[in-house]
Amino acid sequence: MRFSSSFKVGILTLIALFILLFTILWVKGRSFSSGERTEVIFRDVNGMRPGSGVQMMGLRIGQVEEIIPVLNGDNSYVKLRFVITEEGITIPQASVFSIQQSGLIGEQFLEITPPKIRTTYLPVFNDSKLLYKNDSVQIKLDKEYYDVGKVRDVQVLSTQMVPPMMRDKVKTKYAYKVDYVINMPGLIIPDYMLGDIVKTPNGDKLRISMLDNTVLPYPQQTSLYTVVEPMRIADFLDLQYKAAESLTQTTVKVNELLSDDVIADLKESVQNINKLTAKATTTIEKAEKLIDSSKEDLDTMIVMAKEVTQNINKVSNNINGIIGDDKFKPVLISTADSIGKLSNNLNKILDNTDAKKLGADLQAIMQNLNEISTSVSSMTRDEKLKEQLFTTVNNVNKAMNDISNALELVNGMTPQQKCRLQQIVEDTSVTTHNLKKFSERLNKRFLLFRLMF
Q: Fewer CB within 10 Å: C terminus or N terminus of the chain?
């Protein structure tokens, strides 16, 4: 069958018109697909146009059909309608919608990111509660707890496999690894969250919280999806400018604090500290050498002091036998005070006299006093002997006071009186030696009395 030329021209014209119409519709973003059409609301689409692609996890699944601005004062927004051209694609609830750009100056597209699986780690105790798949996930928003997701999987593993950031929160040998998803639209949380198992009237639930226990606000969003507003380059540059300005102010303040004068003072302080440390080290070394060289004398003094203490204890025990005498008691107390005063003053000048000789004399004196007190204990009924004993003790007390006064005078002397210091030390030594002889003679006298009676 033959077609006329006019018929062929008409057929070609219709085909051309059809191709032109299809091209126009495609350029404007229209689609002949019967796929699902969805609307999302943005505050700003950052220059996106109809016909831009729609991607899910990097794959193109549709395209943008219409972008309709809605002007309503401060509540103005942009309604973006798109269509899914691929079969079998369903957008999960709480998926994240964001406007992305391929490269720095590439075309823009709508990116859809399904809710990702998050993980938290819980310590395993002997009485730990158990979680199961599809158990609810709770979080505190404002002042109440809300169910915001579902548990996907629960595993038990060694604590060594827990990430370092979460390992400090798990102190047990084993840990629960709980995988969960957030299905509340508009709720954006960090990747790492603290977790705990709580018992509620509706069963056990996983309760999550921020690492710093911050309470998030309840998301004010009516859409089934989570919309992330794009950031314009101008906004990004403005943030960078503010950050640079803050850094500049910080640098200026640091420069003011670390001026040349401050740095010079710090250097001088460090040098002074180094000199002081060196002097302290030298002083400590000298002290160590002095202690080492005087160790033998110190040991001798300690032994003498111990023997003197023992003799004083013996004297005290003997005095207990006659302490009931009202007249004799204050005299003994005065003598003990004199001996204590003498000891305190003697400690201050041990470096300027012969410690061994003084210690030996004091020891001999205490031994003689011990023997005298023993004799007195056995002869306390003789009233005449008591009177003589009181006189003797008073003389000893006076001698002790004289020595103590001489030592106090030594302690208060100035460097210009060094010559006099030597003479007083010699007098003190002679007095102590004479006191020793006196106590020995007194002891012999009491020995004679013991033999007579």
A: N
- Return the pLDDT at 269: 86
Closest CA to 220 of 110, 142, 116, 115: 142
Q: Where are the alpha helices (DSSP H) in 174-326?
A: 233-257, 260-293, 295-319
Whether the CB-CB separation of 82 and 65 falls below 8 Å is answered with: yes
* Cβ 193 vs Cβ 119: under 8 Å: no
Q: Alpha-carbon distance 432 to 354, whole Å?
A: 12
Number of domains composing the chain: 3
Residue 131 shares a structural domain with residue 216: yes
pTM: 0.48
> Do 52 and 194 fall within a single domain?
no
Which residue numbers in the chain have pLDDT < 70? Answer: 1-3, 24-35, 103-105, 128, 233-234, 236, 294, 297-298, 301, 305, 308-309, 311-453
Q: What is the pLDDT of residue 149?
A: 94
Is 61 within a domain?
A: yes
* 106 and 146 assigned to the same domain: no
The pLDDT of residue 229 is 86
The neighbouring-strand residues paired with 122 are 176
What HEC string does 284-302 produce?
HHHHHHHHHHCHHHHHHHH
Structure tokens at 95: 């998926």
Same domain membership, residue 137 and residue 123: yes
Give the residue from 206, 224, 242 where a domain finishes. 224
Bridge partners, 96 (sequence order): 113, 226
pLDDT on residue 185: 92
Please identify, among 90, 113, 136, the residue that sits at the C-terminal boundary of a domain: 113
